[in-house]
Amino acid sequence: MLILIGMMSLNSFSQNVIDSTSIQLKKPIVRLVIKDLIIGDSFKKELSLITTKYSLLENKVVLKDSVINNLNFQINNFNSILNTKGSQLEFTKQLNDKLRLEIKKQRIKNKILGGAGLIALGGVILILK
After folding, report:
1. What distances in angstroms separate CA 36 from CA 43, 47, 79, one per listed residue?
2. What is the DSSP secondary-structure string of 16-28?
3. Where are the domains positioned within the chain?
4. DSSP, res 13
5. What's the CA dihedral at 36, 39, 44, 50 to 10 degrees?
6. Closest C-alpha among 46, 21, 25, 44 to residue 34
7. What are the backbone dihedrals phi and psi of residue 50, each rounded to the nearest 5 degrees, phi first?
8. Between 16 and 128, where is the model more confident?
9. Which tens digit of pLDDT belongs to each residue from 68-117?
10. What letter does residue 15 receive in the DSSP assignment?
């Protein structure tokens, strides 16, 4: 009991609470800090606008690349069509030359047969006379 009474009679002390979040600045410094905060906020907005603009530009580049690839594909298709048409034209020229040669041969045969027919007709007429 004596210990208990002795402890109650002792003075105790504790630390005073110190508020470390409050800082007191002079007015000109506070104005400069406020200006810096406003400028920082405007830079954040500008940065967000620049990033959206950058993403839009990236999308435009992707779109232009796809258009260019599509045009290159069309050019390749047109070139293959031209090559096919060129080979068809060469084939038709070859066929045309063969047909002309055949027509010449047929004309010569017709002339020979026509001449032979006239000679035979003349021979028959001479024989019959």
Report:
1. 10, 16, 63
2. PP---S-----HH
3. 26-128
4. -
5. -140
6. 25
7. -65, -40
8. 128
9. 999 999 999 999 999 999 999 999 999 999 999 999 999 888 888 777 77
10. P
**Does residue 11 have a pLDDT over 80?**
no
Tell me the backbone φ, ψ of residue 31, rounded to 5 degrees.
-60, -40
Residue type at position 93: K
Cβ count within 10 A of residue 119: 10
Query: What is the residue type of 39?
Result: I
Lookup: tokens for 117:
């027919």
Rounded to the nearest angstrom, the gap between the alpha carbon of residue 102 and the centroid of all alpha carbons in its chain is 54
Q: Could you report the per-residue pLDDT of 34-49, keeping only the tens digit for each?
A: 999 999 999 999 999 9
DSSP assignment string, 4-54: HHHHHHS----PPP---S-----HHHHHHHHHHHHHHHHHHHHHHHHHHHH
